[in-house]
UniProtKB/TrEMBL annotation:
Keywords from the UniProt entry: Membrane, Transmembrane, Transmembrane helix
Organism field: Planotetraspora kaengkrachanensis
Signal peptide span: none
TM stretches of this protein: 48-64, 71-94, 100-124, 136-159
Name of the protein described by the UniProt record: EfeO-type cupredoxin-like domain-containing protein
Pfam families with a match to the protein in the record: Cupredoxin_1 (PF13473)
Keyword DNA-binding: no
The keyword S-adenosyl-L-methionine appears for this protein: no
Domain EfeO-type cupredoxin-like as annotated: residue spans: 153-253
Classification lineage: Bacteria, Bacillati, Actinomycetota, Actinomycetes, Streptosporangiales
Length: 254
């Protein structure tokens, strides 16, 4: 059963009674939580920023029922933060369609965030009407279960991730998330192996040499190797996730 709040016209209340913009926000929250869970599962990492994002949007979902504008504001703010804080990772993953499921999950993540921002404007202007709470409780329960599964499952997968160990001839490069331990690498021409150790506890990092079509992404607290061939010359390397000068440098091949 629904009723129109005092001061509202039927035109203002009808869309909300049917779900309308607040209903679309709920759908965006569910998709966003589901995709962040999937991203962590596929990437075998535990992302505190993604978990905080899930907590924020689920909190907004709780507030949406009785404090519509507050809930809308929390959800819109979380969507905006997601796009800003994870912009580097989103751009990197969206530019790699060959990654398959990761590309799909990232696409839906970005789409849900953008849709949430767009829907927040008319939802902010639409007052909430009272309705039965069974469906809302089911939605909240489902979102809570997904958030809990994300913590447990992604932690388990991260603990069982693959690690590469050093071999003779490897060039060891260490990144702590904000910089690399050395910006100048050297190697003889021919087959070259770079062992990237990512000491960042929470975020994946990458080693990329565009001129040689070399691209390696390493999960948090993980060591991975990439092997490639190169002729004499100087090649710039960088991290396509961070896009900062401190995580790049050059490889000189003699």
């Amino acid at each position: 059963m629904t009723f129109i709040e005092p001061g509202l016209t039927a035109a203002e209340s009808t869309p909300t009674a049917r779900g309308g913009w607040p209903g679309l926000l709920r759908a965006c929250v569910l998709v966003l939580v589901a995709m962040t869970v999937l991203q962590m599962l596929l990437g075998r990492f535990l992302g505190p920023s993604l978990i905080v994002l899930d907590i924020l949007v689920v909190t907004g979902l709780v507030l949406l029922r009785h404090r519509t504008r507050t809930g809308v504001g929390v959800i819109a703010g979380a969507c905006l933060l997601n796009l800003l804080v994870h912009s580097g990772l989103l751009v990197y993953m969206l530019s790699s369609p060959e990654s398959g499921p990761v590309f799909a999950a990232t696409s839906l993540n970005a789409l849900a965030s953008l849709t949430g921002l767009i829907a927040a404007v008319p939802a902010w202007r639409t007052r909430r009407v009272a309705r039965a709470g069974g469906r809302a409780r089911s939605v909240l329960l489902a979102a809570g279960v997904l958030a809990g599964v994300s913590v447990v499952a992604s932690t388990a997968l991260w603990l069982t991730r693959d690690q590469d160990t050093a071999r003779a001839g490897d060039i060891l490069l260490v990144t702590d998330g904000t910089r690399v331990d050395r910006a100048a690498l050297e190697a003889p021409a021919g087959e070259i192996s770079v062992l990237l150790r990512n000491d960042d506890l929470f975020s994946p990092r990458a080693f990329d040499i565009d001129a040689l079509d070399v691209h390696l992404t390493v999960p948090p607290s993980t060591t991975r190797r990439v092997t490639f061939s190169a002729q004499p010359g100087r090649y710039a390397f960088h991290d396509e996730i961070t896009f900062t000068p401190a995580t790049g440098g050059s490889l000189t091949v003699h």
